[in-house]
Amino acid sequence: METPLTNSGQRTVRRYSRYGAVLGAGGGAIVGLLVSGPHFAQWSVGLSLAVIAAFLLLGGGLGYVSPGLALGGTAGGSGAGTGPFGVSDGDLSGHHNGTSGGDGGHDGHGS
């Protein structure tokens, strides 16, 4: 079965994941500055820097995973398992020959 993401598609997602991480981190740093700015006189320097760093990391993380999620959405899937962390097997039904994630194929009717 062909996977929804080819090797060139995986390279593209990785490249845009890096761009997303950088842009997301920059946006997160700006949001962190806006959040901590009004409180800078009240908060310690360490707390202000921690807030900025937290938003920077959150923005970078969201920017990193967003290209894979967007590609999964355009491919008609949920985006789960796609992107820089792996490729979905294309079967999102939960039925995998009685393995985890499904009810083993039983429909609940009869025995």
Short descriptors:
111 residues; mainly alpha; 2 helices; 54% helix; 0% strand
Would you kindly provide a written description of the structure presented here, covering whatever features stand out?
By secondary structure, the chain is mainly alpha-helical. The protein has two helices and no strands. The chain has helices spanning about 5-35, 45-75. It starts with 6 loop residues before the first helix and ends in a 37-residue tail after the last helix. The model has no long low-confidence stretch (mean pLDDT about 75).
Inertia-based shape = rod-shaped
**Beta strands, count:** 0
Give the low-pLDDT segments: none
Structural class: mainly alpha
Rounded radius of gyration (Å): 20 Å
SSE pattern, N- to C-terminal? HH
Largest sheet: none
N-to-C span = 32 Å
